[in-house]
Each structure stands twice: as C-alpha cells, then as structure tokens.
Amino acid sequence: MRSSIASALIVISLLFTSCASKNGSNLWTVKSPDGKLEITVELSSQASDVSSSPGEGSLRYWITYGKKVVMDKAPLGLECEGESFAKNLVFRTASFAKIDETYTLHNGKRRNLHSLANQLILALNNENGTDFELIVRAFDDGVAFKYALPGEGEKIITREASAFKIPAGTAYIMPYDDPGQWWPAYENFYGEYAVGASSPTQSGWAFPALFRINDGAITILITESGLNGSYCGTHLEKDAPDGLYQVRLPEEADGEGVGKSTPVASLPWQSSWKVIIIGDSPGDIVESSLVTHVADPLAYAVSDYIKPGRAAWSWWSDSASPRNFAKQKTFIDLAADMGWEYYLLDANWNYEPMADLLDFINYADDKRVGVLVWYNSGGPHNSVTEAPRDRLFERERRRQEFQWLSEIGVKGVKVDFWHSDKQDMIKYYTDLLRDANDFQILVNFHGCTIPRGWERTFPNLLTLEAVNGAEQYKFNTAYPRNATWHNVNLVFTRNAIGPMDYTPVTFTDMENPHLTTVAHELALSIVFQSGILHFADKPDGYRTQPETVQQFLREVPVTWDEIKFLHGEPGKFVVLARRSGDTWHLGGISGLEEEKTVTIDARQFGVGEVLFIGDEAARSFKIQKLPNGVHEIKMAPYGGFVMTVKSDESR
Fold first, then answer.
1. What architecture is the 573-646 domain classified under in CATH?
2. Whether the model pTM is above 0.90
C-alpha cells in the first residue's frame, strides 16, 4: 500500500489577536480555533503559598473549556543538574502563530487528517541567563505543550516539573509497573479510582490517564507524544494530592538497571509533547487524533512494502508450536484460506534447523502469506531467555540480521521484552525502526512502551502491545472477570492513543475460560485498532464458526478512513463505527452483567442492506440481514455485536 503525507504548515506571527493574547505583564492566553478552549500561562512575580507554584519566577498554567475551569493551576518547567528552569525565570519574548497542517496516516483512526491550532512560544532566561522556551498549542479538542533549550552543549535533566491539576471526579487509570523481570510493560488493568487516589504501586501511574469531571460532563485524557531519542518516556507520581498529578522520570531499576533515568539533553533540544485531550463526552477522546497531530512528521517515505494486514498466530493456542514447523503450516493454511496477509512465527523458532525454516517460509510464500518472526530485544536490559536474543541490540549485528531476514523473504519482526522507558531505550526503539525500514522490514513491539505518535513518524511500525491482552487467558485467573469491563476501558484509554496489539477474537477457551460472549469477541476486531490484527485462536476456533462469521473475518479491514463514536461509557459499554472505502463496520461490546440495548440508525451510514451478527447465547451467534433503518440492538451480559453497511452511496 502506498501512502503519502502532504503537509502545509502556516506560521503567522500574531502578537495580539482573538486567538492568542497577553493578558497582563505576566499572563498569556491561547485559545482554540473555535474559541471554546483556553490555556493560560502565568509567570509568577512573587513567591506563592499555592502548592501548584514553586515560587517567584515560576511558570504555571490552567485550562478553561466552555468558560469552566477543567484543569486548575499546575506547574511547568525543568530541573537540570546545576541549574533550574522551573524557578527564577525571566521573560524575554512571546510569539504567537497559527498551525495549519494536513497529513495522511495508513494506520490509525482515520486516513486524512487536518491539524489546526494556535501556538504560543514563550522565551525566557533562568537565573544563569540560559535560554529556555515553553511551546504551547491549543486545538479544538485539547492542548499540548513541550519545552525547548536553545544553544549548544549538554544538560542533564533531573526532574520535569510539569503537572496536571484535575478537579474532583473519577479516574480510569493504570498503575505503572514496579521494576521486575517482566516489567514495566504497561500490562495492568485500567481500573476506576477517585481523582487524587494514590497508585497501588510504588512507581506511580501510567499514561494514558482518563478523567471524568463535572459529574461526567467533561472528559480529559493526558498522555505524551513526539517522543524520540532526545528524551525519555515519563509517567506520573504515585501520589496526587488534591488531584495534582506530577510527571515522573523512569525508574532507576527499570531495564535491569541499565541506562540512566535522567536524560541528557543535547542542545539545541526539545522535549516530547505533553498532550491533554478534552471533550464533552468520552467519545471525543476516542475520536481525537491530537496524539498524531503533534507527533514528528514522516522520518522516511511510506514505501510499497508497508502493508497493514491480518495475521494468524499459533502461540496463544499452543505455546510450544513455534518449534514445530509442521504444526505451524496448519496456521499458514488457515491464513491462506481466510485471505489474511501474514502469519506470526513466535519465540524460539531459531532452535529448529535452518533448512526447515527456509522450507516453511517458502511454503507460506507459495500460499501468498507473509511471515513475521519474533525476537527478544535483549541486550543487557532484560534477563528473559526466550530466543532469538542478542541479535538486535547492537546496531551492526541488527542490520546484518535485518539484511538476512530480507534475503530469505521475512516481512516483519515482533520485538519483545523492552522493560524500560529510559532515554537509551527510546533511542533503541527509534534506531531499530529506521534500520528495519532500510531493509523493508515491518515492526511490531511487545513488552514495550505505549504509542507516542510513532505510527505517523515511522510508518513501518504497525502496532504495539503495551496492553493486558488476550494472552492473559493463559496465565491470569482473574482475567476473564476483569476482561469484561477492561475491554471497554481500553477503547477510551490505551487504544485511544494509538495502535494496540491485543491479539483478539478468541472463540475457544484456554486455562481461564471466557466470560465474554463469542459476539463480544468478534466485535473486538472492530472496536480495537491495530495495523496488524493478530487472530490468536487455533484453526478450528475459526473454521467451526458459521460461514457468515468466517466471511466477516475474511473481509474485516485493518486500515480505516473514518471513525465515529456512537454510544458508550467507560467500564460499561461502547459502540464504534469505522469506515473503510464505502463500507461501514460497526462494533459494540458490553462489560455489564445485565442485558444492554442500544439504538442504531443505520441510515447515517448509507442505503444498503445491513448485516448483523450478535448474541444468540454466550457461545453462539445471532445472524440476520436487516433492512436499512433504525434498530434496537440488544447485547447479552458481557455481549457484543457487529454490523456491516455496504452502499455505493455511503456517506
């Protein structure tokens, strides 16, 4: 698939306009293009007893939305070794601009995107006379800010002073993993907590974090984007007194203690963006593309080899199968029969004879199925023995491996067990993506960090795990119960910020049987988005389903032109519609113990006949052809449904 990016960045100096203004000697306001949202930045002129301000010459900000304060005064700035950019700051200049940009994504919520924002760049000096900049953008659906250090040399960042002051309400948020052999990997549950609650882990809270405030009238999601090897990934402190969530650098013990938790800024330098998405409903968060709006543009062209697709996968149903190529050929046959583009060969394949590997790849190629192969990212940063390992950590060895993979016909890699968001590991991620592109290799990260807009910058990155996904049916006795509501929450949290490799649509049971219905499982192929959709079940798990269900799985897209949020509440239920070409695919899932009814007006999606696949019983489907119109759709307890509307006149 060939995709291209067309960008137009219009930067217009605007000293005092309706969209951005200086409101006093030390106060600057930036409005969203529609005027509904405002972010105000203040440079304090004297010491303050307000907990959100560190004192004289410090920066803080607050946000109003629809004339109401939705984020109260919170600090900004950086602390570096030997000097501070969080206090004793002195104003130099302020410049305002309009950002107007269009770009294309081949892997995400929608294909063609328009980013429109108003921007403030506030230039200051610290007490040593060193230059420091705060860059703020206001969009209709939120705010983003980052820092810049002009000049030359290096600075060691010891703390990021940024924080988020959330009013009273409910948080849907995930504890950040304490360091361990398998952690951090962003694989906890997005539970429901009161705003301001302390994390049950010592390491704090993870991004993204979702908040419902003003009795549910306002929804906020905070995360970060535009991360590259110039900075580390961050998360949030354990305690959030009075709703003040403070940014925290990586844990020193992450990644087996390898690498520094304090990033080194090589000047001139810019941080990643902190992203605050704001809307009237949870659906505004789901539909937002703000994370990719502020991500770095394409690092390289979208070449023909970059093809999102569907994949069969044997490891979920038979973890020993990667060492048995004869068994895995049955999954190649499944992928070929279903028209799926790929098969994922998982861990420990390298212990089998090379001749068998090459025969297997040729077998898949004859069936028009591309092979993806698993690698351990280690390196000294993890102690996991699953193999192959120690082939990707060093750049020269990595490029040799990618060249060999390209020569034998492998299409992509799944790289696992990262366990750190330190600066050196972030650089490893981005360097690996660039090297993989040089040899036309697709990439899938597992045991990894969250998406931070990389699908825009590095188009060969098709998906990332960073989710407590379907593999947990093999390991976690509590997973089936929690998955009922966790699957719903993922739509509003983890998958709202980028592609998510949950490995869904498992109809059969592993060690810990499903509580969700088979229709719920089928709907995950729509409500979850991933550039590679790994179907995790065994061949009979799909071949024994009704022909209509099998045909749905043959046709389900992974690239989307448009998204619409239809219904839903975190922890309860969600219904989405996604368009690919002239066909709309609707998916709904429920995390409720009781039956849930939703109203769907199919006329908004076109004039064609409607295919409906829903709940007959927990382990069986109800399949109907419905006239185009308004329908009351019932989801069973922990149930779900899919609908397809085909029309030449789809709107």
1. Sandwich (2.60)
2. yes
